[in-house]
Fold this protein.
Amino acid sequence: MSTASTGAPGAPTLIPATILTGFLGSGKTTLLKRVLTETHGQKIAVIENEFGEENIDNDILVSETQEQIIQLSNGCVCCTIREDLRTTLADLAARRRKGELDFERVVIETTGLADPGPVAQTFFMDDEIAETFLLDSILTLVDVKHADEQLNTRQEARRQVGFADQIFLSKTDLVDDATVQALTHRLKHMNPRAPQQRVHFGEVPIKDVFDLRGFNLNAKLEIDPDFLTADNHSHDHGHDHGHDHGHAHSHDHDHEHGEHCDHPHHHHHDDDVKSFVFRSDRPFNPAKLEDFLGAIVQVYGPKMLRYKGVLNMNGTDKKVIFQGVHQLMGSDLGPKWMPGEEKISKMVFIGIDLPKDILMQGLEGCLA
């Protein structure tokens, strides 16, 4: 399970990188302009795919220039992708080493139609890139006014939500609160890992944009606790998330099923990007789990967007932390289980039409 290294924590040489994604018109450029023009004292290199409807250059950059990298007055650097991302990153890193460019972090703006998966994979598949950059997080902007239609009709929009470490909701002032609530609920079922935050005209504190450590292997698995309870109580509502755990790992939930029925628009969407959570208080057999996950990734890797877990494994008194993007999977030993701490394995899978029953039964079969 060690096909991807996520960079040693605290290694001083790695340059953090952030992927900014979101559907056309969601406000990525507005947010970027703010990052690029604000005096935050950080030197940022921005890489953008130049075939976007709304290029940043009409306001900030002189688009006629032959130079593909432009130094801005506040110390930021801007750059358009002429070849592929790997080449562009390698070029930026080389120029930084030579002292030609000075920057501390990189932001990559994807085009509105992009799937962030291959962009994220660039940071794990190429040794030179992995030794220079550390992928920090994927940020997704969602235009609340048009989101339902975009999510209904465009798989790219759903993928962008599935990949996110943080979701920013833009244009919330253009809709009523019930619409925002319904959308946040829908997004949470697609991706319970990503916190959601409203933004107004790109005004996001820098601390909410950078150093989120979404790809760090850490011992915290951020899943909204309400998602877990909602998940376990929806057995009899006819939805397709969370109603088939007849297993040991949901035995501690015995509340009334009706308590989550107060949201009329809970689940009228059947999105192909979904998430589900596996929990168990029995330890895993490491060899079985590795074989099973390896096989699953071979078959379903392209449809697996993000997956992450904090696991209780036989043979170690430490938590085992694992995560993956598509076919790339990595794991690491985390801190020891604390005395008296309940040893519960928790895994979240976010993907496109993943066969939940197969995964749940397979994971159940890997328990010691």
